[in-house]
Write a structure and sequence with these properties.
By secondary structure, the chain is mostly helical. It has one domain. It contains seven helices and no strands. The protein is globular and about 45 Å long.
Length: 200
């Protein structure tokens, strides 16, 4: 198993946890939790693969990925805690997932012949569109559209740095780690400082 595959599976599990925690905060049943967890973990990657033309999409026949989604949902189901703590947990797991999936989305796009600009777009979509679908399922305003939330912007900045570092002698594994931690840092800092883009 390559390092990229490890990162993909880590992102899948973290985003499955995020989706399950989100379903828990909206008091859904176990089936609803599975649906939201699956949408969060695979929504962005599925849209990316459909746009690029990858067939079958990444999660088809991937039993390990399916187990990770079920495991994330089961862990959430077994935890007994108050909703406010779940909201805090959702934010941090989501930040980690954004970092992991931005890098993997970019790498998948590059390995399928896309140029840097479109690879960056695919990376941002991979990281953010699963959460977008989950928020829609929960009838909530998506984080992607909230003011004071550098959500896709954090992914774009981290992904841009990732592409720039690919032109240096830094190894791909180190580059992935730098991108992941950069996106997590931007996301957390922007949330605490209420940083936001100018209004249209």
């Amino acid at each position: 198993m390559s390092f990229l595959q490890v990162v993909i599976y880590m992102g899948t599990f973290v985003f499955a946890l995020t989706g399950a925690f989100k379903a828990r905060s909206y008091r859904m049943d176990i089936f609803g939790g599975l649906v939201v967890a699956f949408a969060t973990a695979y929504g962005g990657g599925t849209i990316r693969d459909l746009l690029i033309g990858i067939q079958p999409v990444n999660w088809i026949n991937d039993n390990l990925a399916l187990i990770l989604v079920f495991s994330g949902t089961a862990i959430t189901f077994l935890l007994k805690d108050n909703v406010n703590r779940f909201r805090r947990t959702i934010f941090f797991t989501d930040a980690v997932g954004l970092g992991l999936f931005t890098t993997t989305g970019i790498e998948v796009a590059l390995r399928n012949g896309l140029n840097d600009i479109y690879a960056l777009i695919m990376g941002v979509m991979t990281a953010t569109f699963g959460g977008l679908l989950a928020d829609i399922f929960c009838n909530a305003v998506p984080n992607l559209f909230k003011r004071g939330e550098l959500y896709a912007t954090a992914c774009a900045i981290g992904g841009g740095i990732y592409l720039l570092l690919k032109e240096t002698q830094i190894s791909t594994n180190v580059n992935i780690a730098v991108c992941v931690f950069l996106i997590i840092g931007i996301r957390i800092y922007s949330k605490r400082k209420r940083l936001m883009l100018p209004e249209i």
